[in-house]
Amino acid sequence: MSLPLIQTMILGGTEAQATWEGLGDDVVCGPSQSAQWFSYWQANANTDCLVAALYAAGKPVLLLPLEVVKRGPVRIAIYVGGPHANCNFPAISRSHQFGRDEFAKLFDELHRARPDIDIVSLSRQLDELDGAGNPLLQLPSRENANVSLAITLDRSFETVLGRNNAKRKKKKHRQNTRRFEEAGGYRIVTATTPSETEAMLTKYFIWKADRLAKAGIKNTYEPAGIKRFFHQLFAAETAMTAPRFQLKALEVAGQYRAVLGKSRARHQTFIDFIGISDDELSSASPGEFLFFEDIQDSCVTDLGIYSFGVGDEPYKRSWCDIEVPTHDTNVSLTARGRMYGSYLAGREQLVRTIKQNDMVWGHVKKARSRLFGRA
């Protein structure tokens, strides 16, 4: 049987949407590997984006959306969105059976089309999504230092609560409900208009910048175009019947106190970010309150999994019953890329070792805050 047609494409706007639609109804796709994400990122954050695609019988069976970035003299192709791409999974046709020979030819074609790219570095990948396996993990891959923590919803909030400190969660939620009511009343708001998404994101970016600065962490929202990307992405989705990207907020006394950014695959939702206001009500844990409400709402939908996304934090552990490893796949295309790939492997191993040692990782976070933070 002949191998599928291999292509690389430079896409944008309606072209991207049409190509993704060509995958058919059995498409499986990480939210950050969707046509919407690709188009808005290319338009706002990095024009140097492309799609490496596998075709069979004239139809696409895999789309690998990439952006090209520079690290010193090295040009790297990564998932579009960089650190903002959460729990990555390529857009694939569920019905196609992939072989390693196809991927060898895919990356050979990418190298012919873009000989300036030294290495393809695909990080934080899921091994499974919506019942489909990630075909890219047939290639040599390593476990990422960061896991993804998630909840099995079971369409029952009581079941979810019952797995971990149900009494404590309910008691704290009642106490904070009283605090918010005494402060002027509260409501949970889902953004349904572009003006609401703009207001929520504006608050979130302010809160996030302040918290990252205090922790001594680089603000990945600062580079040109990234805030505009998120504004356009979420605003456009408010017009959709079933939005893939959505914002929710806790409003108390007419002011936003927490903002949650979510994305969705077919049967799984991902928390992409959350921010809280540093004010007189921050001690009432507005972020935890919003999570409680959102998880409860999600239990009465057709969702099977509620994922907190990549990263290990105590508030995630207090809910989750699933720990999902993520994986990195590096494909070197040049001699320089092979050297950089060796560096990445060593760096990833060091990070993994540090994060697996709670005491060492705690010291690293404290030192980072003292050296680079404002407080």
Structure commentary:
This protein has 375 residues and is of the alpha+beta class. The chain has two domains: 5-145 and 326-372, Aminopeptidase; 154-303, Aminopeptidase (3-Layer(aba) Sandwich), CATH 3.40.630.30. It is 38% helix and 29% strand. It contains eleven helices and 16 strands. It has helices at residues 14-21, 35-44, 100-113, 157-162, 166-182, 194-215, 226-237, 286-298, 314-317, 335-355, 358-372, and strands spanning 5-9, 27-28, 49-56, 59-71, 74-79, 91-93, 119-125, 128-129, 132-133, 141-152, 186-190, 245-252, 255-264, 268-276, 305-310, 322-332. Strands 1, 2, 3, 4, 5, 6, 7, 10, 11, 12, 13, 14, 15 and 16 form a 14-stranded mixed beta sheet that branches. It has a two-stranded antiparallel ribbon with strand order 8-9. Strand 12 and strand 13 (255-264) form a beta hairpin. Helix 6 (194-215) runs antiparallel to helix 7. The model has no long low-confidence stretch (mean pLDDT 91).
Secondary-structure blueprint:
Layout: E1 5-9, H1 14-21, E2 27-28, H2 35-44, E3 49-56, E4 59-71, E5 74-79, E6 91-93, H3 100-113, E7 119-125, E8 128-129, E9 132-133, E10 141-152, H4 157-162, H5 166-182, E11 186-190, H6 194-215, H7 226-237, E12 245-252, E13 255-264, E14 268-276, H8 286-298, E15 305-310, H9 314-317, E16 322-332, H10 335-355, H11 358-372
Parallel strand pairs: 5-7, 14-15
Antiparallel strand pairs: 1-3, 2-6, 3-4, 4-5, 4-6, 7-16, 8-9, 10-15, 10-16, 11-12, 12-13, 13-14
Helix pairs in contact: 1-2, 2-7, 6-7
